[in-house]
Design brief:
It is a single chain. This protein is of the alpha+beta class. It folds into two domains: 112 residues, Orthogonal Bundle (Arc Repressor Mutant, subunit A), CATH 1.10.10; 140 residues, no CATH class. Strands 2, 3, 5, 6, 7, 8 and 10 form a seven-stranded antiparallel sheet that branches. Strands 4-1-9 form a three-stranded mixed sheet, with no helix packed on it. The longest helix is centred in the N-terminal third of the chain and has 23 residues. The radius of gyration is 19 Å and the shape is globular. The N and C termini lie far apart (43 Å).
Length: 274
């Protein structure tokens, strides 16, 4: 279908039906987070063949279903680490992992630091320190312009906007580069090595609750992504890459990277990413 072409009624109904099917599976994942859930079992919930379901899920969420399940488990682990006194081992088993080594490796890959360090960092920071980092007017992550664009949020939004550049089509682990805005408007990221990247944005409303920056609330978080990959060639990219941020959806993968860890690292308040 050509870009900009209108969808027929039947195509619109099919897209809506596929989204509802994917949402059913995601809600089932959340309800049975620690239980094994195979691709055929997910497909049965969606009332689709395994092959068709895998393709539909990937098209709807941007990632494969098993990877989405991994992300939900790590999201739950983050919450347990910050809101309970359970040991890392107990958290590992509660979210469906049978190996502490596998759990620690995946947590580190997706969040940016190991689970024990994640919990420790939350105990060291204060909301006043975090706010002082969030309100630095300069480009927090890098200097110079390579990738530019405009961030648009609802007029009522007041908070900070994080933009990250990632080597994969989902925002996980630490970004290759990024910037932090104190309000919607123009942004720039760079300079960057030549390559293919994906830009994502998350807008955190102002709050005095420190935990909200570690565990973003889906009901108030705004998210957005570039409509195409960013190709950097000879130190420049074609642009601009504008983003209109929106409310999160059930089908959005959880935001797993730790913004406080990135800020602490860049401000010299934590160890460098591993």
């Amino acid at each position: 279908m050509e870009t900009g072409a209108k969808l027929s009624i039947s195509e619109s109904h099919t897209i809506a039906a596929h989204r509802q099917a994917v949402e059913r599976v995601i809600l089932s994942m959340r309800e049975h987070l620690a239980e094994p859930l195979s691709l055929p079992e997910m497909a049965k919930i969606a009332c689709l063949s395994p092959f068709h379901f895998d393709r539909v899920f990937h098209q709807t969420t941007g990632i494969p279903p098993v990877q989405f399940l991994y992300a939900l488990r790590i999201e739950a682990a983050k919450r347990l680490l910050l809101t309970t006194s359970q040991s890392v081992t107990d958290v590992c088993y509660e979210v469906g992992y049978n190996s502490i080594g596998t759990f620690t490796k995946r947590f580190t890959q997706l969040v940016g630091l190991p689970p024990r360090e994640f919990r420790s960092l939350a105990g060291k920071l204060s909301i006043s320190l975090l706010e002082s980092w969030c309100h630095r007017p300069e480009d927090f992550f890098s200097a110079g312009a390579c990738i530019t664009g405009q961030v648009v949020t609802p007029a009522s939004f007041a908070g900070v906007v994080f933009l990250g550049l990632f080597p994969t089509a989902i925002p996980q682990s630490n970004p290759v580069a990024g910037t932090l805005l104190t309000s919607a408007g123009p942004y720039h990221i760079g300079p960057m090595p030549d390559g293919k990247y994906y830009v994502f944005a998350a807008a955190f409303p102002h709050t005095r609750e420190l935990i909200a920056y570690f565990l973003p609330d889906a009901s108030s978080l705004l998210v957005g992504a570039g409509d195409r990959p960013v190709i950097v060639s000879n130190g420049r990219s074609e642009g601009p890459f504008d983003m209109k941020l929106r409310e999160t959806r059930v089908t959005d993968p959880p935001i797993l990277i730790s913004l406080p860890f990135l800020l602490a690292t860049l401000a010299g308040g934590a160890s460098s990413p591993r």
